[in-house]
């Protein structure tokens, strides 16, 4: 009798056999009969697998029938047929092999059918399916729509987001994908470098799945890991960093098309430091903000025709050059100055190479890329300098032309041409008033005033090869003009108001102060210093800039304002300002250096002309006022940041006291070489006469000179000597009033007008002290006694260019000193200077009875 297990096995075998028979008759045989002979390899492979499945199915059915028959025999004759007769036991290996063949064939067919189905559904995405790309989510599993792209399908891989739209496949690197929650429960936003999308699911649950998986995938891509967890089974993905550092090549049309950016990103836009490279060789290294060049950056632009580069080391604002910059062009020109919207605008200096065929330099104001406003143009080829107004890149308005020959012209220009009457001053002080040609040739009606006072008035013409032709009247009756009136022939005064000449320099500093001195704009508004190369070459070295600026400009300006507050006391203010003005990193020091640059561009070289002296000295005074105003502006910002009460605006008298008493002496050394040269040129003739007088007076022994100058003998400092006359002459040679003489010689050791006046005051004190010792009592010298003694001291001090020194002191001294002791002493020194120039001083001959021994 059979046990129940054998009966149950019999029923299973019967069912399995019947199932195999139905599959064969209903599925496999119809498929084989209906499938034509395929022509493609893929179809032939599918047919082969189907035939193999049919054969393995038939073989398995046969084995199952044989096993079923052995079970039936065992159940019919349980006593005579043992278990060992069952096929499952006696042929177990064969049965297992047949089953394995069937399962293998069936699995192969199922896999092929599955791939066929996927191929029909996916079309192009089979390219992305590879071991390197793991599919994380499909919009056909959890529907989601994407706008505005309207993609039919969305595939999220472990490193790429794919949007299928018709025949187009849009791929996005997950490292450059940002996820933002949407406005409602079914929507969230995806940001990429060039596009923004809105993902909308059918329900909040779908939105949660997609947003979680995209966020998780982006996080894993950024970390370089692929340990993906199931939604809800693991920890929440960390919040995605807004700022990243990735490389990306732009594809869409626009200014960045095909450009590659490598650097910092924030929310889909280049933001921070980075490098931008275009296929045509352009490179930009610097700071970016919301996708645009913003902050300091270096742009390298190749010039294919010349195999050179143009290099722009500038500050940028929203994609355009804006603020201070240094630009080196392929023409070997260099521009240092300000930009606005990518064009030269504000103050700037454009200079050609020294070896250029027509060297030139322009220092002045620009408007929208053109020279416009007040500026200095130097034409090296013509050997002349233009000082005046410009418009649309041409000389236009009032202007002064100075030539290498010492000729000066002042008049009006229109479209780069001289128009109307003007004034011409020659090196020998001849004055012409009339009309000119571009080359400053006299033409038309005019009047010439010669140095001797003669005048020539009439019509002038200058024909080729004929020289200057004149038809007019020569007046020889006039007296020679007063030398002081000739010195007053100064150009530019009134034509260019001093307060408006260099607004392009003052303006950025005022903007900096009005903006409360932001550290990040310090360089853009106040400029920076960098070594520039004259020779542009194809080199990546231009993608770096060694600027002499502090690493943290924000903290630097904070330190500057803090130090400024600590030195508000009048005693501490002077050393503080001296230190600040000498520091090229301090805002005041930067401003002073730019003003020095403009001063040198105007008054050195060709511009060193005596007829520009007044123009220069009033400019220096204006710079002192502007620097004091700049200091006060910084002080107000410092007080405001500390929440302290702001200082009240000072009156004009107080301001003048600070400017002339404090600032002017501090900045004068910066302008002194150029300024004093102009004074030397203006007073050259008087100083020449003075020098002759000094040379002649130096031949006198002390006693003879004192006698010649009518110094009263009781004031002579010789009473303590008991030597013979000859011995006395030898001993006291250049020894009388020695302390006063040595004191006066120190007047040339300083450039500060006040210190020069203090030297003069000490000299006066030494003279009085010497006289008081001689008289044995304190004695105040009246002017009649002081003047000859002072002439004696001046003659023995032998100060060169005393006239230039006196006039510079007079022009630069504090107006508050007018009418005081300093004014009196300076007037006395000036009187001595004029006396020494007189003919009797210069031509005095020593008596023939004086022997050589008596002279010395």
Automatic annotation (TrEMBL):
Cellular compartment(s): Cytoplasm
A single GO BP: endosomal transport
Domain VPS9 residues, every copy: 699-845
GO cellular component terms, semicolon-separated: cytoplasmic vesicle
Any matching Pfam family: VPS9
Keywords, comma-separated and alphabetical: Cytoplasm, GTPase activation, Repeat
GO molecular function: GTPase activator activity; guanyl-nucleotide exchange factor activity; small GTPase binding
InterPro entries cross-referenced by the UniProt entry: Alsin, Alsin-like_PH, MORN, VPS9, VPS9_dom_sf
Subunit field text: Homodimer. Forms a heteromeric complex with ALS2. Interacts with ALS2 and RAB5A.
The protein's role, per its UniProt record: Acts as a guanine nucleotide exchange factor (GEF) for Rab5 GTPase. Regulates the ALS2-mediated endosome dynamics.
Protein name: ALS2 C-terminal-like protein
Species this chain originates from: Trichechus manatus latirostris
Gene: ALS2CL
């Amino acid at each position: 009798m059979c046990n129940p297990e054998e009966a149950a096995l019999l029923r299973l075998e019967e069912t399995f056999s019947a199932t195999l028979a139905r599959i064969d008759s209903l599925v496999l045989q119809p498929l084989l009969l209906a499938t034509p002979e395929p022509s493609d390899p893929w179809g032939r492979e599918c047919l082969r697998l189907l035939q193999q499945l049919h054969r393995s199915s038939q073989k398995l059915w046969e084995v199952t029938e044989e096993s079923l028959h052995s079970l039936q025999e065992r159940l019919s004759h349980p006593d005579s047929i043992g278990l060992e007769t069952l096929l499952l036991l006696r042929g177990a290996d064969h049965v297992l092999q047949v089953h394995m063949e069937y399962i293998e064939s069936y699995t192969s067919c199922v896999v092929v059918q599955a791939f066929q189905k996927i191929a029909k559904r996916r079309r192009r995405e089979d390219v992305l399916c590879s071991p390197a790309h793991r599919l994380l989510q499909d919009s056909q599993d959890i529907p989601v729509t994407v706008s505005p792209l309207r993609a039919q399908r969305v595939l999220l891989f472990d490193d790429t987001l794919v949007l299928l739209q018709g025949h187009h496949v849009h791929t996005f690197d997950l490292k450059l994908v940002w996820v933002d929650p949407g406005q409602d429960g079914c929507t969230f936003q995806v940001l990429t470098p060039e596009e923004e999308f809105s993902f909308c699911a059918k329900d909040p649950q779908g939105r949660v799945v997609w947003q979680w998986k995209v966020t998780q995938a982006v996080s894993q891509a950024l970390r370089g890991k692929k340990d993906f967890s199931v939604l809800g089974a693991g920890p929440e993905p960390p919040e995605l960093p807004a700022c990243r550092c990735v490389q990306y090549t732009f594809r869409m049309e626009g200014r960045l098309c095909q450009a590659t950016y490598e650097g910092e990103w924030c929310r889909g836009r280049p933001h921070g430091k980075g490098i931008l490279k275009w296929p045509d060789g352009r490179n930009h290294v610097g700071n970016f903000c919301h996708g645009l060049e913003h902050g300091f950056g270096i742009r390298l632009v190749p010039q294919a025709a010349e195999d050179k580069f143009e290099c722009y080391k500038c500050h940028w604002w929203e994609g355009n050059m804006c603020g201070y910059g240094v630009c080196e062009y392929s023409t070997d020109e260099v521009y240092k100055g300000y930009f606005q919207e990518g064009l030269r605008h504000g103050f700037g200096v454009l200079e050609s190479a020294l070896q250029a065929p027509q060297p030139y330099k322009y220092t002045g104001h620009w408007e929208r890329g053109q020279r416009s406003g007040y500026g200095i143009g130097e034409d090296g080829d013509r050997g002349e300098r233009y000082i005046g107004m410009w418009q649309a890149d041409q000389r236009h308005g009032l202007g002064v032309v100075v030539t290498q020959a010492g000729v000066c012209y002042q008049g009006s220009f229109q479209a780069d041409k001289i128009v109307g009457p003007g004034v011409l001053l020659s090196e020998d002080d001849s004055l012409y008033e009339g009309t000119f040609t571009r080359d400053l040739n006299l033409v038309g009606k005019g009047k010439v005033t010669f140095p001797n006072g003669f005048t020539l008035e009439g019509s002038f013409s200058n024909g080729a090869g004929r020289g200057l032709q004149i038809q007019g009247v020569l007046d020889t009756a006039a007296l020679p003009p007063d030398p002081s009136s000739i010195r007053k022939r100064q150009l530019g005064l009134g034509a260019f108001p001093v307060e408006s000449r260099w607004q392009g320099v003052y303006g950025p500093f005022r903007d900096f102060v009005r903006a409360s001195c932001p550290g990040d704009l310090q360089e853009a508004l106040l400029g920076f210093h960098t070594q520039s190369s004259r020779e542009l070459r194809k080199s990546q070295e231009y993608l770096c800039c060694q600027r002499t600026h502090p690493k943290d400009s924000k903290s630097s300006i904070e330190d500057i304002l803090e130090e400024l507050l600590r030195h508000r006391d009048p005693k501490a203010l002077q050393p503080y300002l001296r230190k600040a003005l000498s520091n090229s990193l301090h805002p005041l020091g930067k401003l002073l250096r730019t003003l020095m640059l403009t001063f040198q561009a105007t008054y050195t070289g060709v511009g060193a002309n005596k007829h520009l002296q007044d123009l220069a000295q009033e400019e220096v005074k204006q710079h002192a006022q502007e620097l004091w105003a700049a200091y006060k502006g910084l002080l107000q910002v410092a007080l405001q940041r500390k929440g302290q009460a702001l200082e009240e605006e000072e009156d004009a008298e107080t301001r003048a006291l600070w400017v002339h008493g404090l600032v002017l002496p501090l900045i004068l050394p910066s302008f002194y070489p150029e300024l004093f040269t102009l004074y030397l040129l203006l007073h050259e003739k008087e100083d020449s006469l003075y020098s002759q007088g000094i040379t002649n007076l130096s031949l006198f022994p002390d006693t003879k000179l004192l006698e010649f100058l009518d110094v009263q003998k009781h004031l002579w400092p010789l009473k303590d000597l008991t030597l013979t006359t000859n011995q006395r002459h030898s001993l006291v040679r250049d020894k009388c009033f020695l302390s006063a003489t040595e004191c006066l010689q120190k007047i040339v050791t300083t450039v500060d007008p006040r210190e020069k006046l203090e030297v003069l005051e000490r000299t006066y004190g030494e003279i009085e002290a010497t006289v008081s010792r001689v008289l044995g009592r304190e004695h105040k010298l009246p002017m009649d006694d002081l003047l000859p003694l002072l002439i004696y001291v001046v003659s023995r001090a032998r100060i060169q260019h005393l006239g230039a020194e006196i006039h510079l002191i007079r022009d630069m001294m504090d107006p508050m000193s007018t009418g005081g002791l300093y004014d009196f002493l300076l007037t006395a020194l000036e009187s001595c200077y004029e006396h020494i120039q007189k003919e009797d001083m210069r031509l005095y001959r020593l008596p023939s009875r004086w022997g050589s021994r008596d002279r010395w």
